[in-house]
Inverse folding.
């Protein structure tokens, strides 16, 4: 094992999982695993002792596990990958074309095509939704999809749908200059509704996904097995499980820890079940999604949290699944000057979820405090976050 681990490429960002070197290493690991007596789970347990040195190796194990799940499907499955885009023209390009290039959309399509080749019972499609992007991400996506004539992949434009009063729009959603604008969430929910309206063969699984390759699409199979086996109706990919593989940028850790404590306080039932709510690698069986979608009122980033809370409140079976996550931080719209939604805005959205799903008494002191502070007051807190949220009330 030590030898095969040492052959792995250095991985420092999402793009590094999509290079020729990474593809070649996947083949090497796959061949090596085939000659081992231990299961993938057992091999992964051993590899954890190598720490970050085994990052590439353990990531490839996730790909192999996912591929095996697709290969062994014995009934028809259709997977629709929902891919909102906003200022994603960099990531959709190849690395030689752009410093942040991940070739992300082509890679997702290629992975789906690969899964379709190894098992004809699997069918997949990508639904891209332009979230009012000023850089014409949707147009670039259309050009890329046109490279696959006759394919089921589609591109939708949220702004155009609002102008045309599309019947599948989330209720009350507005353009970017409105009070009920979309920050990824509205686009994702619109795409989900379009997926539910589009005919699908067999079990239909709809996956909420980020536009980048932080969770590589070779892992889609990890979301499929338990739904197909009837063990659950929803699966939340997680960076925080014992078998997860995770490389998270430092700035995200600094600004995210306090937010995690806050949402866990307001949504205690969800916190008991899911440790990583904000990762857009979640799968929903279509009939379950049909049940919860009308309840979702958050169109900013915490829509992901509301999807999970709705599952719990409606008794829809929900499990978590460890995945390999490699940060794609450089082009993030939640970093530095690129930030599109403040944490205080997101906290207020969490409070709204807590109120609507009755997860905590409205007399809660922290709820009252955070509902009353300004952005300036929040920035002071965020600059020097307390070790515990209880310190906010002292």
């Amino acid at each position: 094992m030590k030898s095969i681990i040492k052959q792995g490429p250095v991985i420092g960002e999402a793009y590094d999982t999509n290079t020729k070197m990474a593809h070649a290493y996947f083949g090497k690991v796959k061949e090596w695993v085939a000659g081992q007596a231990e299961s993938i789970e057992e091999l992964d347990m051993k590899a954890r002792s190598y720490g970050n040195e085994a990052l590439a190796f353990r990531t490839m194990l996730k790909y192999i596990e996912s591929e095996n799940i697709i290969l062994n499907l014995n009934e028809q499955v259709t997977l629709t990958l929902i891919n909102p885009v906003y200022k994603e023209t960099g990531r959709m390009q190849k690395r030689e074309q752009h410093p942040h290039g991940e070739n992300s959309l082509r890679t997702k399509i290629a992975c789906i095509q690969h899964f379709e080749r190894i098992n004809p019972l699997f069918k997949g499609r990508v639904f891209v939704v332009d979230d009012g992007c000023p850089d014409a991400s949707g147009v670039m996506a259309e050009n890329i999809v046109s490279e696959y004539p006759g394919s089921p992949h589609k591109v939708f434009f949220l702004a155009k749908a609002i102008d045309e009063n599309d019947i599948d729009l989330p209720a009350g959603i507005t353009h970017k200059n409105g009070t009920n604008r979309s920050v990824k969430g509205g686009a994702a929910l619109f795409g989900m509704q379009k997926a539910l309206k589009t005919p699908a063969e067999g079990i239909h699984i709809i996956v909420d996904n980020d536009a980048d390759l932080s969770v590589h699409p070779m892992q889609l199979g990890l979301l499929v097995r338990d739904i197909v086996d009837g063990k659950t109706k929803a699966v939340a990919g997680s960076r925080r499980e014992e078998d997860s593989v995770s490389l998270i940028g430092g700035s995200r850790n600094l600004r995210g820890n306090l937010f995690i404590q806050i949402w866990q306080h307001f949504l205690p039932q969800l916190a008991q079940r899911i440790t990583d709510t904000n990762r857009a690698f979640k799968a929903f069986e279509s009939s379950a999604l049909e049940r919860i979608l009308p309840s979702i009122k958050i169109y900013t980033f915490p829509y992901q949290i509301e999807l999970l809370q709705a599952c719990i409140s409606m008794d829809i079976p929900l499990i978590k699944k460890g995945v390999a996550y490699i940060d794609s931080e450089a082009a993030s719209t939640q970093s530095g000057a690129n930030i599109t939604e403040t944490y205080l805005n997101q906290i207020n959205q969490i409070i709204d979820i807590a109120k609507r799903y009755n997860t905590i008494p409205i007399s809660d002191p922290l709820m009252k405090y955070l509902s009353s502070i300004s952005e300036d007051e929040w920035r002071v807190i965020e600059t020097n976050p307390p070790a515990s949220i209880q310190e906010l009330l002292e």
